[in-house]
Amino acid sequence: MTDTVAALTAAVAGHVRALRTARGWSLDELAGRSGVSKGMVVQIEAARTNPSVGTLVRIADAFGVTIARLLEPAEERTVRISDATAAPQLWRGGEGGFGRLLRGMNDPSFVELWEWRFTPGERHTSENHMPGTREVLHVLEGTLTLTVDGVDHEVAAGQTIDFLADRAHTYRNDGPSDARLVMVVIVPNTEWDRRNP
User: Fold this and answer.
1) Residue 11's domain is classified under what CATH number?
2) Whether residue 31 is found in the same domain as residue 105
3) 56-60, 128-132, 155-159 — which one is most confidently predicted on average?
4) What Pfam families has UniProt attached to this entry (predicted)?
5) pTM of structure
6) For residue 158, what pLDDT is reported?
């Protein structure tokens, strides 16, 4: 597990540094565009921190790439088979829930495939994503309550919901058993400067 975290931290550091320098951005410019502090950007590029999923989203949005792009190994293959147990868990709930990025693609479109599990009472609040971002969730087990624009939507096992994720939203499990779901995130192919909403 420690080796996996170190490898992911190193991958994120290398990709963030390479994407920033390729655009000719200073550390201050990336910090401003992403809304992530300059100190945190320095820590990320030096591979001295394991950033949260929220921080990764902000940085990926600033560059106009998916989180998966920041985590991917340097080599790109024509065909890739990956084991779910090797996928990075980017969110961990206090009671054993998790959010795991199964796979993401940046070409020709930006798409991410996630697996989530929420134990009873767990919740995850997500900031707004890049304008135009959509999420599609399919509940495999249990019931998930999704709050978008202050409105609760209960999604039971076997049901699918899609919504605009460019606004704050919360996933939670109010039920007595685990809620398991898969999620696809579709991100517009453009950079986003959070200083200019």
Assistant:
1) 1.10.260.40
2) no
3) 155-159
4) Cupin_2, HTH_3
5) 0.65
6) 94
